[in-house]
Amino acid sequence: MNVLVIEDDPSVRTLVRAVLEHNNNEVHLADNATKGKELALETEHDIIILDLGLPDGNGLELCESLRSQDVDTPILILSAKHETDVKVKGLNTGADDYLTKPFNTEELMARIEAITRRSRESFAKKQELSCGELYVNLIERKFRVNDEEVSLTNNEFNLMVYLMRNKNRTISQDELAKNVWDIHFDTQTNYINVYISYLRKKIRGHAENDYIETVRKKGFILRCNDKE
Ligand code: CA
Q1: pTM for the whole structure
Q2: How is domain 2-126 classified at the architecture level of CATH?
Q3: CA of 107 to the centre of ligand 1 (A)
């Protein structure tokens, strides 16, 4: 993993670096908030280990500022301050966990493991969509019905993804033309009916119904009865 450590205390920095490198991680070091922010913005890291009391700023503010600039790297706060309100503040500003100094290195590694695993799991989860027996994996670009893989063309796949992201809502043909085909001024939307019929046919090959309902004069709705 690629780890960014923002910490001004040289002894802690050296210790954290040694432990991380010993566990086969690549470590970037910053001894102040400015440099830490620069590194966090220019390189993608798997986790940021962040001290609260830095010579040129406060770790909580840095954390908040990174989150506001869309850095969603998991952040583990490391600090001597053990008051509960500081912990709560840290978690409220978008940190993922909190470890109080002095800490033992096994606990540090265990926390890092847990945070990065959670982050990987939540990323993987976001790449999956489902609706009853229908399932889409966005990373693999796979579509399954009733656990059976169904091969879709590119356009069919993109249409299926759009329907699944907007399930249980009526979607007009114009909306589909715009969002799936990127066509903005089109009066000839009959090809959408054609693609919908392809999808229905493929779904029905593996399921009892095709899930896609036609809403007269309005469009289509992908009907799911999931509890979500
Ligand atoms: Ca410090």
Answers
A1: 0.69
A2: 3-Layer(aba) Sandwich (3.40)
A3: 19
